[in-house]
């Protein structure tokens, strides 16, 4: 096994590209984003190399733009149809209101999954290595059906079917991934997903059932709420402990979730084969947690800064508040993406490049181009819903 | 004349072959290592597929529909090519010519979407307002009412803003119940110099005492009550709220970027919202005339009140009585056209006196 991915990304170029995109985006009422996104992707794709050869991004802003226009039409019409259906259903049967809302959520979730698959399909089909393109085959609709089925079962079983859902997703997605005329092979087992996810699901269940039992048995949450509402000044400790406990629980859940996701990634890569080559990934959970907490701290500092600005404005009177808030808002608008890229996305990309290995690096150098048709327009609904951040 | 080697991809396979390259004044002559010719690539058609350019390499392409590539890493060759290929980092012409089509497609889509939003959103918002449960509307209304009361209390130098008098309260709710046929609705009078009235979600009506001060005739106030109750009956306040939320959603999809789009979305929303509420005002006036006629009250006294308010500067707010300032003349026309709609006074003389002073007494 040897590592075969390189990543020589220039942070200053990414930063200036993001800031440029933001400014142009503002000047063009957001319509520059298709062009901005395309420039940024070229930069990132090109930074990644396999065995010394760089990836190329072939997507164009025009494709994104046309895809977006189509999605806009589809979504507006669907929005109207759903509204009309809602009206009709509730006039004829007012007791259906709860079910309608539930259906709405399911509908949106399905939309989301569909969009994700199309997003992968577009990006992969616009990625080439040594002039040969990647592809995502399969049907976004079939994928959505599978995911929705197991997703709903997961909700009903309080998360215990979630590993199965992830296994189904990985199976469909990876077995439909292709480079040129060769398809990737993935042989993962559902059992492995259970061994990855059980601590996280168990923790959530303990929290859920524990909270419920505690509430029924002692009415403790009503008491705590009462403490928070009325006795705040007399016994601030109770509130403080409760908030501290909540933060702690969120942190534990977050750590369990992130480590499960990292393990899942490593497992999926390890079970994937391309021709006669096997892959391996060992991204260390600790490194990911470090990157994540650094990102968290920077964001908190940023928010604190905005609060300080607001406070300074508050002291200076109403007009000063407005001025400082506008400054804070613009700073946030300009920098939030930059922070995300510089402190989360790029470090993660570099970590992934370092941690993925292959046992036959030459396998990508022998593949014939595929005759498979690439989709003719961009990410459409995924773009409209802002699925996938970059 | 210069000779160097490159890595040639035929575009059909990821397998490459080494190529001998000869740089002439017009073109690159490509030969495979066994000396069989590959092709002649004219310099002014060449583009670097690395975009932005990469330091130690150029990936040459000849045409947009030709996926063959020539990768050059020889430093001298890189220098030669970068100086002698004029269009190395430019876009190909085909991409440039698509602009007009793109602009047309965008304009067309936006027109359709705007049409759907403009004509479709009120229908959807109305439907949603119908299905929002009574309790939710009550909560919404209460929240808005609390905010308004807080503002008024503040501008009253923290004195109690709510005016109350047993006789006046009874009289007001009696008149409302004449319009409402049992539908829940409540009237609250608050102390304020501003002449205004609002309908809030959940059947709440707020009258600013400035309006009562300006009313020369008791039935002018009754007309305002009828108008506000017409909003309540048609769920206008909730519709407006839902329409605002819906438009924010659609606009944030159009503008993508959630942070940047919000600013512009806010502006667009306000413009559209104002136009919806003008429609709502017209409908409320029509319905108010019906209410007045049914109860044999004359709507006429509302006309001088409207005219009087027009002169003072109105407050912009949720479904304000005065929100449609520009077409107040057409509202007056509508009311005039209704003629004399009744002969009775809704309040007794004593009740009207009580209402007039309820705010001076209770503070
Ligand atoms: Zn009105």
Strand and helix layout:
The complex is a heterodimer of chains A (390) and B (363).
Chain A (H helix, E strand, L loop, with lengths): L1 E2 L1 E3 L3 H17 L5 H15 E3 L2 E5 L3 H32 L4 H29 L1 E3 L2 E5 L3 H17 L5 H14 L1 E3 L2 E2 L1 E2 L3 H29 L1 H11 L5 H35 L1 E3 L2 E5 L3 H32 L1 H38 E3 L22 H5 L5
Chain B lengths: L1 E8 L6 E8 L3 E6 L4 E6 L4 E2 L9 E4 L7 E4 L2 H10 L8 H4 L2 H33 L2 H22 L6 E2 L2 H15 L5 E5 L6 E4 L3 E5 H6 L3 H16 L2 H20 L2 H37 L7 H10 L16 H11 L10 H14 L1
Parallel strand pairs in B: 9-11
Antiparallel strand pairs in B: 1-2, 1-7, 2-3, 3-4, 5-6, 6-7, 8-9, 10-11
The structure holds zinc ion.
SSE order of chain B, as H and E? EEEEEEEHHHHEHEEEHHHHHHH
Percentage of β-strand residues of chain A = 5-15%
Question: How many β-strand stretches of chain A?
Answer: 12
Q: So what's the oligomer here?
A: heterodimer
**Helix/strand/pairing class of chain A, anyone?**
alpha+beta
What is the terminal-to-terminal distance of chain B? 99 Å
- What class do helices, strands and sheet pairing of chain B give? alpha+beta
Largest sheet, spatial ordering of strands of chain A: 2-3-4-5-6-7-8
Query: What value does the Rg of chain B take, in angstroms?
Result: 36 Å
Radius of gyration of chain A: 24 Å
Poorly predicted spans of chain A: none
- The percentage helix of chain B is 40-55%
State the helical fraction of chain A.
over 70%
Shape of chain B: rod-shaped
Approximate strand percentage of chain B? 5-15%
- What small molecules does the structure contain? zinc ion
How many strands of chain B?
11
Query: Mean pLDDT of chain B, as a whole number?
Result: 79
């Amino acid at each position: 096994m040897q590592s075969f991915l390189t990543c020589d990304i220039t942070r200053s170029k990414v930063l200036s590209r993001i800031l440029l995109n933001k400014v142009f985006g503002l000047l063009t009422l957001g319509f520059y984003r298709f062009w901005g996104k395309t420039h940024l992707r070229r930069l990132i794709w090109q930074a990644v190399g396999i065995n010394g050869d760089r990836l190329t991004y072939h997507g164009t802003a025009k494709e994104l733009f046309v895809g977006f226009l189509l999605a806009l039409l589809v979504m507006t019409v669907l929005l109207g149809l759903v509204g009309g259906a809602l009206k009709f259903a509730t006039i004829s049967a007012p007791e259906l209101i709860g079910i309608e809302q539930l259906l709405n959520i399911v509908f949106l979730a399905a939309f989301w999954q569909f969009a994700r698959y199309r997003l992968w399909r577009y990006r992969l089909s616009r990625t080439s290595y040594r002039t040969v393109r990647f592809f995502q085959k399969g049907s976004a609709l079939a994928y959505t059906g599978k995911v929705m089925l197991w997703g709903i079962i997961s909700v009903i079983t309080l998360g215990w079917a979630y590993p199965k859902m992830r296994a189904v997703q990985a199976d469909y997605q990876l077995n439909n991934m292709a480079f040129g005329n060769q398809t990737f092979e993935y042989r993962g087992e559902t059992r492995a997903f259970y061994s990855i996810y059980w601590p996280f699901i168990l923790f959530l269940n303990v929290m859920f059932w524990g909270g419920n039992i505690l509430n029924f048995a002692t009415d403790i949450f009503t008491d705590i709420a009462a403490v928070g509402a009325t006795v705040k000044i007399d016994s601030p400790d109770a509130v403080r402990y409760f908030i501290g406990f909540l933060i702690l629980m969120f942190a534990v859940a977050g750590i369990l979730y992130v480590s499960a996701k990292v393990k899942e990634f490593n497992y999926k890569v390890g079970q994937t084969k391309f021709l006669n080559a096997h892959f391996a990934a060992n991204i260390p959970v600790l490194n990911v947690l470090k990157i994540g907490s650094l990102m968290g701290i920077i964001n908190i500092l940023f928010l604190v800064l905005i609060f300080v600005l607001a406070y300074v404005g508050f002291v200076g009177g109403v007009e000063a508040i407005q001025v400082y808030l506008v400054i804070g808002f613009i700073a946030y608008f300009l920098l939030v993406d930059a922070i995300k890229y510089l402190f989360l996305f790029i470090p993660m990309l570099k970590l992934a490049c370092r941690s993925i290995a292959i046992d036959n690096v030459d396998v990508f150098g022998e593949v014939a181009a595929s005759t498979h048709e690439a989709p003719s327009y961009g990410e459409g609904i995924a773009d409209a819903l802002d699925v996938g951040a970059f | 004349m210069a000779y160097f080697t490159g890595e040639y991809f035929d575009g059909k396979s990821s397998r490459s072959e080494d190529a001998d390259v000869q740089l002439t004044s017009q073109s690159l002559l490509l030969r495979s290592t066994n000396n069989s010719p590959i092709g002649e690539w004219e310099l002014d058609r060449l583009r670097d597929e690395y975009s932005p350019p990469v330091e130690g390499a150029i990936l040459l392409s000849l045409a947009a529909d030709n996926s063959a590539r020539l990768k050059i890493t020889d430093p001298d060759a890189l220098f030669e090519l970068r100086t002698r290929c004029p269009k190395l980092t430019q876009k190909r012409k085909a991409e440039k010519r698509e602009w007009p089509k793109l602009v047309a497609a965008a304009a067309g889509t936006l027109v359709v979407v705007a049409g759907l939003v403009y004509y479709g959103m009120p229908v959807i918002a109305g439907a949603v307002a119908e299905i929002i449960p009574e309790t939710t509307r009550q909560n919404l209304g209460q929240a808005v009412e609390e905010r308004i009361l807080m503002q008024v209390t503040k501008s009253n130098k923290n004195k109690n803003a709510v005016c109350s008098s047993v006789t006046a309260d009874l009289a007001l709710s009696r008149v409302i119940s004449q319009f409402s046929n049992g539908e829940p609705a409540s009237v609250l009078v608050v102390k304020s110099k501003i002449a205004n009235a609002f309908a809030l979600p959940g059947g709440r009506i707020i009258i600013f005492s400035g309006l009562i001060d300006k009313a020369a005739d008791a039935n002018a106030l009754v007309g305002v009550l009828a108008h506000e109750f017409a909003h309540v009956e048609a769920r206008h306040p909730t519709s407006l709220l839902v329409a605002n939320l819906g438009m924010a959603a659609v606009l944030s999809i159009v503008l993508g970027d959630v942070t940047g789009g919000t600013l512009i979305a806010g502006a667009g929303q306000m413009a559209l919202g104002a136009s919806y509420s003008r429609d709502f005002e017209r409908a409320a006036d029509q319905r108010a005339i019906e209410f007045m006629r049914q109860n044999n009250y004359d709507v006429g006294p509302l006309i001088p009140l409207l005219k009087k308010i027009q002169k003072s500067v109105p407050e912009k707010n949720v479904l304000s009585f005065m929100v449609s300032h520009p077409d107040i003349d057409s509202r007056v026309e509508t009311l005039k056209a209704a003629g004399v709609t009744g002969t009775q006074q809704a309040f007794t003389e004593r009740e009207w006196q009580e209402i007039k002073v309820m705010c001076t007494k209770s503070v």
